[in-house]
C-alpha cells in the first residue's frame, strides 16, 4: 500500500478531498495521513498531491505485516512481557535474568 | 459587533502591565519558532533506477563470454571475436553498475533532505501547538485577574446591566474593556451611549476623539 502523509494545512485539505472523491483507492484515512491502495490509480492520486504540494506530501511504500514476519524470539519477548505480573516493570529490567533479548540488542538488529 | 470579550479583556490586562506565569515559556516558544528554518530544501532530480534484471543479464553475458574465451584458448582457437564481445559486455556492465550506484545515492540524498525538512515542519507544528496552549492559559490567567475590575467596569459604563459581566451585550462589554485598559492612543467611538465626548473620556479614562 501507499502511505500518504501531509505536512501543511493545504495539503491536508486536499488529501481529505481526494479521499472523499476517490474512496475506491483509499484503504484507510487518518487525520493527516491515508493509506492508498497499491494500484496505479492509488499512485496517481498520491502523485497528484505530491505534484501540487511537493515536499509537504510524503509518500511511502507500506508492506502488509503479520506477526510471523518477525523472528520468534521477538514475538516471544512481546508475549511474555505483556503477560507480566508487575505492570510497572520496564522491559529492560524484565528481560534481564530471563531468557529474553535485552532492548539494546533488539534496537541494533534490522528486521 | 464581533467582540471576543475574554481576548479583549486579556489585551486590556496586558495594557495595565499584567504578567503571567506563562510569559517566559511563551517568549521561549516564540524564539524557537523564529529560529526554525522551514524553507524547502533543494533536491537533486530523481534518477530512474537501473533494474536488477539488467545487471543480472549483463553479469551472465560476461560469464558466458569468459567461459567461451577460456574454451577457445584451451583448444588454441582464434579468440579475437570472443575477446571483443567480452570487453563490450564488461564495459556495459560496469557502466550500468556505476549508474545504479549513482541512482541509489541520489535516492538516499533525496530521502535524507526530505526527511530533515519534514522533521522541521513537525517541530514547527508541535511548537505552534504548545504556543497556542500557553497563550490560552495566559489569557485565562489574565481574565481571572481582571474579572472583578471588569465586573465593576460593566456597572460603571452606560448600557443595559447584564446578569453576569461576560454576558454583557458587545457594545457594553467593549466599553467596559476600554475602561479597564490603559489607552494612551485616542479611542474612536461609534456609539451614542455617552451624553458627551467628555463624559466618554471620563468614563473610559482614555483620550477620545470627536469625529
TrEMBL record, chain A:
Residues 68-111 are annotated as: Disordered. It comes from the Archaea. Residues 68-87, 99-111 have a biased composition (Basic and acidic residues). InterPro entries: DUF7855_C, DUF7855_N. Residues 1-64, 68-111 form the DUF7855 domain. This is Uncharacterized protein.
